[in-house]
Amino acid sequence: MSTTRRRVLSGIQPTHDSFHLGNYVGAVKQWVDLSHNVEEFETFYCVVDLHAMTQAPKPEDLRTRTLASIAQLLALGIDPDKSTLFVQSHVHAHNQLGWVMECLAGFGEASRMTQFKDKSQKAGADRTVVGLFTYPMLQAADILLYQAHLVPVGEDQRQHIEITRDLAERFNSMYCTTYGKPETFRLPEGYILKAGAKIYDLQDPTSKMSKSSESQAGVIELMATPEVNAKKIKSAVTDTGREIKFDEENKPGVSNLLTIYTTLTGTTIEQAEAEFDGKGYGDFKGAVSEVVVEYFKPIREKALSYLEDKTYLHSILEKGAQKAAAVADQTVKNVYEAMGAITL
What we know:
By secondary structure, the chain is mainly α. Helices cover 55% and strands 8% of the residues. It has helices at residues 21-36, 49-52, 59-76, 93-104, 107-111, 114-123, 130-144, 158-177, 226-234, 252-265, 269-275, 281-308, 310-339, and strands at 6-12, 41-47, 83-87, 150-153, 189-192. Helix 8 (158-177) links the parallel strand 4 and strand 5 (189-192). Helix 4 crosses helix 7 (130-144). It is globular, with a radius of gyration of 22 Å. The mean pLDDT is 92.
């Protein structure tokens, strides 16, 4: 394990054919920035296909979406020579440590996880799969396998970091401290992603842009054609006024478009407000549309190019799986030895 660089671990689910603008601004853009700082960080990025199975995707959808996720990460700037890029199911240690975490977690604390409570209440007990209940334990395993120092997450994921730390501390206490052995797990820290870059739905600017939205009319997908995304932006909800001003309470739609514009152009809110002073919403939406289209057009083309070369993508995944397994398998071996299991 590197003693000079901090290890970073994060993952994304392949639940749709395309990432959306919120994924990119809220997470992947910052993954890329971390991965390029190779002197300070050692980055592991994972497409978590096992987690996606809780939604029972069609086999062909899971295959195509997993490859599409890898292609998009590459196109967005994740360099496989600088980061370990892999698919979760390719590293068997995830399932192995996931079971150990399930044996450590209490029924009560698992029941209190926000994601499980929300989704099970909506679907009902009979339609809620056990995998959704144990999801946080597998997620804890994902993190602890790589002895991560930092886990880039949004504020709404803080609870998952807390249970991961609780489980790691519980294991270290039960199997290491008690028997006078070195601690097995490093306690990860949540690397809370920068505030102020949350992207909202274009049709409902009070709700976060999400792949699970009932309607995709307000979701900007990176793999959609430029024409489709331009139309969505020009149809975005604003308000009855004309002033282009950042005011999340009274002008959430305009504020959301300003966030998108400034994030992709690198300008400040104040600069954007001055730029569009005296102009109408039509001109403003047209400018936002042009920025989004020009920003993501080459990225989409790169991703499509990668998807044309499945041999290259599979070579990237094989290399990533080998690098990830070298770390993860050692962690599982240490865990089994600490628990008293016979290892070969």
